[in-house]
Specification:
The structure is a single chain. By secondary structure, the chain is an all-alpha fold. 44% of the residues lie in helices and 3% in strands.
Length: 156
């Protein structure tokens, strides 16, 4: 027997969508705090073990929420419609953190406690991210190309 999907979203799906869209997108620093603490406590371990320990602690300690009507649950941030931070990948976004709430697209509220927390964490990650590793290895001509936007990465 073949089951066809409904032509229109169900009432439950419509309600979930309305609830989701009614929320203001917000930055969450909970994951960033956990990863920073684990990396600081395990400096001598290889990167793969630091990542494993950080993931484990995140899964053990991260705030969990399940909204009414959800059938599939789970989110990498501590609240609905929030953006998590991956400091172990790139911390360069901190240069523009004050612009997130006013930028033309994908505005993101950055609560004061999140901003102050991330400002405290950022120095630890400077020079330790893949972005920094790649930046050190770029040739001068490639670096110039990025500076005049001849080349761009979506996250730069």
């Amino acid at each position: 027997m073949v089951i066809s999907p409904p032509e229109q979203p169900t009432a439950r799906v419509k309600q979930l969508k309305e609830a989701f869209l009614s929320l203001t997108p917000e930055m969450c620093c909970e994951r960033a705090v956990i990863y920073t603490e684990v990396y600081q406590q395990n400096e001598s371990l290889p990167p793969i073990l630091k990542r494993a320990k950080a993931l484990r602690r995140t899964l053990e300690e991260m705030t969990i929420f399940i909204q009414d009507g959800e059938v599939i649950v789970g989110h990498p941030a501590s609240r609905p419609r929030s953006a998590e931070v991956f400091p172990e990948v790139n911390i360069e976004f901190m240069k523009e953190i004050d612009l997130f709430e006013t930028r033309e697209y994908n505005r993101l509220k950055v609560p004061p406690h999140v901003k102050s927390t991330l400002l405290k964490l950022a120095p630890y990650w400077q020079g330790k991210c893949p972005h920094d590793y790649l930046e050190k290895r770029r040739s001068d001509s490639l670096r110039r190309g990025f500076s005049i936007f001849l080349f761009t990465f979506l996250n730069e």
